[in-house]
Design goal:
The structure holds two protein chains of two kinds.
Chain A lengths: L1 H33 L3 H4 L14 H9 L2 H32 L5 H11 L4 H14 L6 H25 L3 H10 L3 H12 L1 H16 L3 H6 L8 H6 L9 H34 L2
Helix pairs in contact in A: 1-13, 3-13, 4-7, 4-10, 5-7, 7-10, 8-9, 10-13
Chain B lengths: L3 E10 L2 E11 L4 E5 L6 H9 L6 E6 L2 E2 L10 E4 L11 H11 L4 H15 L14 H13 L5 E5 L7 H18 L2 E6 L2 H7 L2 E6 L2 E6 L1 H6 L4 H6 L6 E10 L2 E6 L2 E4 L2 H6 L11 E7 L4 E4 L9 E9 L3 E8 L2 E8 L9 E6 L5 E3 L12
Parallel strand pairs in B: 3-8, 3-9, 6-7, 7-8
Antiparallel strand pairs in B: 1-2, 1-4, 4-5, 9-10, 11-12, 11-14, 12-13, 14-20, 15-19, 16-17, 16-19, 17-18
The chains are: A mainly alpha, B alpha+beta.
Chain lengths: 276, 371
């Protein structure tokens, strides 16, 4: 018992704390920079605690870029991608988990292969299609394109969750008088709630963090999400570090706050299921 | 209540034939048991009747209506699964109420019916629990409750007792028999346990490798098995089987084996199928005898009487199983436990001449017609 205690402390000191510092370091820099002036940011040696803390950056960022629009657009991308992934991914994963059909295995492998292409490879081609269709500056197009890239991964995740639910539960529901769709909605979906939540969170984050397609397909200020909006603080000759970090911090805080509000609901749902 | 008919029913999974031209008619109110070793197609047949498996070819009729392409929910069948398949996210009450809710019954009726069923099965104190809080036996009762809460045409039970311990299994077996008698609903019960089949079934269908071996009442299967497989599958310990030849001794038919000649009783001779009459000459057979139809004697009746050596005596309280070796063949005899022979002792064996079973050595089909 003693020995285990001792080992726990040693591993915490040798591994846990350094690891935490590495992970948290960028956030510390982000917070600290958001309260500095541009001069102080470029000082060498750098300061951790701002010498003259200022809230000026927050006012400036708000005035320089349409921050509210950016937040709204990022949120729409997150929600839109989550919606698309759920509507398209859940039925696809359900079919792959429940039915044995010719080509099932090759299809699963094909899905995996699509994950191996970096999005940058196709962005030019997709851009030309989007231009040809006259759909530039359209958030729905960005959400759809981004979703098409994360869909394969989400289907894989969901197939695993659905396969873990015994098919007899659905069969029992069908014998009791349910249709297959009814049995899926009332049995398999609630029972794979943790999986749906995980995939939903993943899809939302993917949309919230979407950058490449937004940068390519959107030029209108009011249509830009946060990622692209903040990117404009990086110009060819100068990086507005103080503004960039302030915007990033706000984006992070909002995302975290968003998850804290839904987290309670999500974990309660997960607990109810996992106690089975 | 209803009649179920399967006609030339076939199920293929790719190249494997799981169910091979099954023909069976289940009568109204009957308790029919499908029995066989694992992989024999009994569960697949049951699932086809329930609509959970598609039919490759052949027909299923319930009350004269062809149901091949009918969804399970339109067949009005209730099913009990081996692993209970309770809904983990519903409480016991809601599990039992589920079929009624789907049928949009009024709330008061649901309440009343669930309570009635719960009382019937002795689970009324569990209605507010989650399935995960129940023991195996309690879960099985809830699963039964969910099946009987509506009055379906037919019950399907897929090895419902095999996850229970031995004692509980015997108890639940009786409860299911009582339940079925009281409700009078046609029931199809799948098991691999021949004891369950013998004790529960009005009739039994024995299957092997997708094919029906025999359909009949338990005593018919036990006393008049259609082939060697049924003979050895039904009954415990299994029927003894050994090679022999039908020959004639002074006008009497006997089975000549490597360890002795045993007379064949006149009732059996009368039942020998005509085309297989041994009068044309000696005929090879496989001879079967149940353990209880072998009697043992301490002293040889004649010097020529077949003598066997006792290898092992297994006492069961009322009976004892005696393993015997005779001329390279092992036989099991069942004797009263009060005076079993000693191990390594030599005993004389007598086979009841009217209880012999004769099978063709190639087809393994019985050579005896039903009486």
């Amino acid at each position: 018992m003693q020995r285990i205690q001792w080992f726990k402390w040693l591993s915490l000191v040798l591994y846990g704390i350094p690891m935490l510092l590495v992970l948290v370091f960028p956030f510390i820099v982000m917070v600290s920079t958001s309260f500095k002036t541009l001069e102080e940011v470029s000082q060498i040696p750098p300061t951790f605690i701002p010498r003259n803390p200022t809230l000026e950056n927050y006012r400036e960022v708000w005035n320089i870029i349409p921050l509210a629009d950016h937040f709204r657009n990022s949120f729409l991308l997150g929600v839109g991608e989550t919606f698309l992934i759920m509507v398209l991914g859940v039925p696809a994963a359900y079919a792959l988990a429940r039915f044995r059909f010719a080509g099932r295995q090759p299809y699963l492998i094909f899905l995996l292969v699509t994950q191996m292409f970096p999005a940058i490879v196709v962005v030019l081609g997709v851009f030309r299609v989007v231009v040809a269709l006259g759909l530039l500056n359209n958030l729905a197009v960005v959400a759809t394109t981004a979703a098409s890239f994360s869909l394969a991964f989400c289907i894989w995740l969901l197939v695993g969750y659905f396969s873990a639910i015994p098919p007899e539960i659905e069969e029992a529901a069908m014998m009791d008088g349910d249709s297959r769709l009814g049995a899926m909605i009332k049995m398999t979906l609630p029972l794979s709630w943790p999986g749906l939540v995980a995939v939903g969170v993943f899809a939302f984050m993917d949309g919230w963090n979407e950058f490449l397609f937004s940068l390519t397909f959107i030029s209108n200020d009011e249509m830009m999400p946060l990622t692209v909006g903040l990117f404009r603080f990086i110009s060819r000759f100068q990086i507005q570090w103080h503004h960039l970090m302030t915007g990033s911090l706000l984006a992070t805080i909002v995302a975290v706050a968003l998850f804290m509000t839904v987290q309670d609901k999500l974990t309660r749902g997960m607990l109810a299921i996992s106690e089975k | 209540m209803s009649v179920v008919v399967c006609k030339e029913l076939v199920k293929r999974f790719g190249a494997t034939v799981a169910v091979d031209h099954v023909n069976v008619e289940i009568q109204d109110g009957e308790f029919m048991v499908f029995v066989g070793p694992s992989g024999c197609g009994k569960t697949t047949t049951l699932r086809m009747i329930g609509g959970l498996e598609t039919v490759t070819s052949g027909d299923i009729f319930i009350d004269g209506v062809r149901v091949n392409n009918l969804a399970p929910r339109h067949r009005d069948i209730a099913m009990v699964f081996q692993n209970y398949a309770l809904y983990p996210h519903y409480k016991v009450f809601d599990n039992i109420a589920y079929p009624l809710r789907l049928r949009k019954r009024p709330k008061a009726e649901i309440e009343e019916r669930v309570n009635t069923v719960a009382r019937m099965l002795g689970v009324q104190h569990l209605l507010d629990r989650w399935p995960r809080q129940l023991s195996g036996g309690e879960r099985q009762r809830v699963a039964l409750g969910r099946a009987i809460v509506r009055n379906p045409k037919l019950y399907l039970m897929d090895e419902p007792l095999s996850n229970l311990d031995a004692k509980l299994r015997v108890q639940m077996r009786r409860e299911i028999i009582h339940l079925q008698r009281n409700l009078g609903t046609t029931t199809i019960y799948v098991t691999h346990d021949q004891v369950e089949a013998m004790t529960m079934g009005d009739r039994i269908m024995v299957m092997r490798a997708g094919k029906v071996q025999q359909i009949g009442a338990p005593e018919v299967l036990y006393n008049h098995p259609a082939n060697l497989f049924v003979a050895q599958f039904i009954g415990s310990p299994a029927m003894n089987a050994f090679k022999g030849r039908l020959e004639t001794d002074d006008g009497k038919i006997v089975v000549a084996t490597e360890f002795g000649r045993f007379p064949v009783g006149d009732p059996l001779v009368a039942r020998l199928k005509p085309d297989r009459s041994p009068t044309l000459g000696a005929r090879e057979v496989i001879c079967g005898i149940r353990p209880e139809d072998i009697t043992l004697d301490d002293a040889p009746v004649t010097p020529a009487s077949p003598q066997a050596q006792v290898d092992l005596v297994e006492g069961l309280g009322a009976d004892a199983y005696v393993s015997l070796t005779i001329g390279g063949t092992t036989l099991i005899a069942r004797t009263p436990a009060d005076c079993p022979p000693a191990e390594n002792q030599l005993v004389t064996i007598h086979l009841n001449p009217n209880k012999l079973h004769l099978f063709d050595p190639i087809t393994e089909e019985t050579l005896l017609a039903l009486p």
